[in-house]
Amino acid sequence: MGIIKKVRTLTATALLAASFTGASFAADNIRIAFIDPLSGPFATTGESGYRTFEYAAQTLVNDKGGVLGGRMFEIVPMDNKISPKESLIQLKRAISEGIHYIVQGNSSGVANALTDAINKHNRRNPDQRIIFLNYSAVDPALTNEKCNFWHFRFDANADIKMDALTDVIAEDQDIKKVYIIGQDYSFGKAVAAAAVKFIGAKRPDIEIVGNELHPIGKVKDFTPYATKIKSSGADAVITGNWGADMVGLGKAIVEAGVDAPIFTYYGAHDGITATFADKGVDVIRVVHEGTFNPPSAEFKAFNEGFKKVNPDKDLNQPRIIGTIQMLAKAMEAAGTDDPVAVATALEGMDFTNIYGRKVHMRASDHQIIQDVNITVHTDKNIEVDADNSGYGLLTEKTVKEAGKDLPTSCEMKRPS
Amino acid sequence: MELVVFSLLNGLVTGLLLFMLSSGLTLIFSMMGVLNFAHASFYMLGAYFAYTISGYMGFWVGLIFAPILVGVVGALIQRYGLRYVHRWGHVAELVFTFGLAFLIEEVVQFFWGKATKDYHEPELLDFPLFTLFGQSFPAYKAFMIFISIGIFIALLMMLTRTRVGLIIQAAITHPNTVANLGHNVPLVFMGVFGVGSALAGLAGVIAGPALGTFPGMAFVLGSIVFVVIVVGGLGSLAGAFVASLLIGWLQTFAIALDYSMTDLLDLLGVSFSDDHVLRDLWSLSLPQVAPILPYLLLILILIFRPTGLMGKRET
């Protein structure tokens, strides 16, 4: 008992001390709550996102003298265990600590819960509003029927990615048969539906020879699926798979001797690139906003600095850099950290990102419009590799301002 | 045609892999009466040990030493963990192995991280063995078949032709009598547990490069192994062998054949309108229900033949 009591007192003192330092910082630091998984099965992704935010805030803002005449960015990590319920608890915590900026990215389920809660909170508490910077959740609904003034998305959404990907497929006259395979849950189904829709519109002559869903995280051997893909005679495979399901599927397809490109959303980093190694060369393709190879001088330097601090991590969500930079720019433009003024400055903002490419925060739905790349897994001309493996993603094709013409159903309500 | 040939081969590979896991488990279960929930965790440990060893000394060294290491770990756990917990009965043992499975998974994540590991097949076996109808069959898969069948024959020989096998077989059905005859039954238990774990480890070593080495690999295979031993019949090595192949083929063919209930009903001349309440049920295709087929088989076996295909006593 004695020890337990002692520990309790210690914890209490520590908490008290922490809240004091927090309070004293709040006056000058601009605090940004990072609500993402930092424990549990998705902690690797959450952790690398957190490290990227930390490093970007430190080097791109704080080391350059901060914003608004010397105020620093401070990233406050809050573990949501990738659960929407836990995220709302963390949101309440952030609100009670007086934080006005929330960043989140992993899981659209969480993003949907957060955007609703923040919208409601802001309506009821006009003097303590919150901005939601979404750096990775790609559910199209977030910038369509569920859009609101407080949510900004810095990643290309699932429809934009599929639009870019099918642009490339449509150009390739050798592709006549496409096989779609994915995990059996909302995201896998959304990818399949978007693929069917866009291919049908752009190249009606392409035959969809397979549209298959497999149980998520439960398939031990993908060889039977690969056998089916091979015998279907597919010229290209599209998949939204991630994690172990991505590795298993990719390896099985290559080993079955299928000579067709595999277009993926998440076929790299977190051990996936190292596992594919020579097997995935010129086969695995990833559609994303990252421009790793050839890198711009600025990005290369940033990556090298990041690697010095985090040798085991990859900069696999580079849109985080733009999120921090654009937030800082919006604050400078607004001349204040007042959320309404910052959000107003952020919407419609034009910006040149770390790759030297123009991006635009579309005002009508708060979806960023940026170049999306189709990159290929290879070990040639790789300057910025993944998993320290020597293999990386080389840009093959770039779709300029991807999704610029995609309509949105968003009816933005701005605070009066 | 090519689908049939390759599904046969794929099913064989999966089935034989399942056999390597279930052979040890079925012996342990029938001897000690304990469902070892951590059995698949030894499979995962085998893959991770071999991954680390192969990084320094190559695949072949890992192939030999990783299973031995896993076997030693298994024997130690039996000696100092299970045997101690045994005095509180089977439930305590069950809970112990259950906790052990989680512990091993956490330990693996702690030391090796959550990301998939780049554990590769040796270059010697990294080529397509043959190409049929334009589809290639990797040499490594043939190697997996070869190893598994070798293990099956070796185990069968040991159990039926040697003195140790005789004692083990006797201990499965009449442990007390064997103890009364002066044999050290606890030592036999420890040995069987160790060898069983080593077999699971060996399965992990050869499956790691083919199926991926990641912290979820035990979970993916764990439950299906129990299906195998129940379907095959407790304590029956031959039963486990037949059940493994059966389930391997059941799963591969279910994925390969794109039939659904609607096709069956069409044959019978029955059709439902698209807005029928049960439409979702009718339109289920065989690949979609493939993952639940083994469990369906498990339930059917428990109802109609509780001893399993080749078992001698009831589960």
UniProtKB/TrEMBL annotation, chain A:
The keyword Chaperone does not apply. Residues 1-26 form the signal peptide. Residues 30-375 form the Leucine-binding protein domain. Belongs to the leucine-binding protein family. It comes from the Bacteria. SUPFAM superfamilies: Periplasmic binding protein-like I (SSF53822). Keywords: Amino-acid transport, Signal, Transport. InterPro entries: BCAA_transport (IPR051010), Leu-bd (IPR028081), Peripla_BP_I (IPR028082). One of its GO terms (biological process) is amino acid transport. It holds the Pfam family Peripla_BP_6. This is Branched-chain amino acid ABC transporter substrate-binding protein. It comes from Hwanghaeella grinnelliae. PANTHER family: LEUCINE-SPECIFIC-BINDING PROTEIN, PERIPLASMIC BINDING PROTEIN OF ABC TRANSPORTER FOR NATURAL AMINO ACIDS.
UniProtKB/TrEMBL annotation, chain B:
Keywords: Amino-acid transport, Cell membrane, Membrane, Transmembrane, Transmembrane helix, Transport. CDD domains: TM_PBP1_LivH_like. It comes from the Bacteria. It is found in: Cell membrane. The keyword Transmembrane helix applies. GO terms for molecular function: transmembrane transporter activity. The keyword Cell membrane applies. GO terms for cellular component: plasma membrane. The chain crosses the membrane at residues 6-27, 57-77, 89-112, 139-159, 187-208, 214-234, 241-261, 281-304. Its main location: membrane. One of its GO terms (biological process) is amino acid transport. It is a multi-pass membrane protein. Belongs to the binding-protein-dependent transport system permease family. LivHM subfamily. This is Branched-chain amino acid ABC transporter permease. It comes from Hwanghaeella grinnelliae.
